[in-house]
Amino acid sequence: MNPERFALLEEARRSLPDGFKVELSGDTIVMTVSPSGIHQRNLLLVRRQFDRHAPAELLPSENTDLVSPAVGKSRNPDLTYLPEVALQTSANQIPAELAAVAVELVSPSNPENDWVGKVRDYPLMGIPLYLLVDARQKSVTLFSRPEGTRYHRREDVEFGETLHIPEPFGFDLVTEDLLAY
Predict the structure, then answer these.
(1) In whole angstroms, what is the distance from residue 66 CA to residue 35 CA?
(2) In a 10 Å sphere around its CB, with 0-12 CB exposed, 13-18 middle and 19+ buried, how is residue 40 labelled?
(3) Of 59, 102, 136, 173, which one's alpha carbon is 20 to 30 angstroms from that of 50?
(4) If you write DSSP's letter for every residue of 129-169 in order, what string do you get?
(5) How far apart, in whole angstroms, are the C-alpha atoms of residue 164 and residue 153?
(6) φ, ψ (nearest 5 deg) of residue 106
(7) What CA–CA distances, in Å, run from 6 to 18, 96, 123, 124?
(8) What's the rounded Cα separation, in Å, for the pair 133 and 135?
(9) What domains sit in the chain, N to C, each tagged with a CATH number?
(10) Residue 150: which residues within 8 A CB-CB, separation 6 or more?
């Protein structure tokens, strides 16, 4: 994408009102409302497990703008883990390829954004792991092995089952305490 066009879209995104999560996917500005209690609870339960297994050089970050201007993408995952040095900045945008994982909890108001848009965008942005928790379907999906426009591996479990999260985390994610919408 043309850098000037990306900058113009980014300026429009930043001018929108507070209380919304706002992302860019090509020429589309995606807005979602603030999350529910169940969303926040499920995110915290997942984050606690990642925190216990994250390498010391990776720090958790919630709602950080991950950008890939070359492909015209600016996404804001619910949770990501970034090298500590990437967070030693006053900027509010971090290069997406630095993220070790993007964790999303499916928005009930816009599930296509997580299931279609981000499954398309995150591999293009160079994000190696995409964990998708869908409280509507009581499922957890891990996408991995990105190449070009797609992830080459997908693993699905239902709430109550465990899902192996590969290195650099290397643990089995327990899903039995996650709540459905």
Answers:
(1) 19
(2) middle
(3) 136
(4) EEEEEETTTTEEEEEEEEETTEEEEEEEEEBTBEEEE-TTT
(5) 13
(6) -60, 130
(7) 21, 15, 19, 16
(8) 6
(9) 36-174 (3.90.1570.10)
(10) 119, 120, 123
Query: What is the helix (H) or strand (E) element at residue 20, kind and residue range?
Result: strand 20-25
Strand partners, 112: none
CA 91 from chain centre, in angstroms, equals: 19
Place of tokens 């999260």: 165
Measured in residues, the chain has a length of 181
Three-state secondary-structure class, residue 39: helix
Tell me which residue of 148, 180, 145, 174 sits closest to 162, measured CA to CA. Answer: 174
Q: What is the pLDDT of residue 136?
A: 96
- pTM confidence score: 0.83
Per-residue pLDDT of the chain (181 residues; tens, 9 = 90+): 677 777 777 777 677 666 566 767 777 777 666 678 899 999 999 999 999 999 999 999 997 999 999 898 999 999 999 999 999 988 878 999 999 999 999 988 889 999 999 999 999 999 999 999 999 999 999 999 999 889 999 999 999 999 999 999 999 999 999 999 9
Give the whole-angstrom CA distance, residue 79 versus residue 142: 14
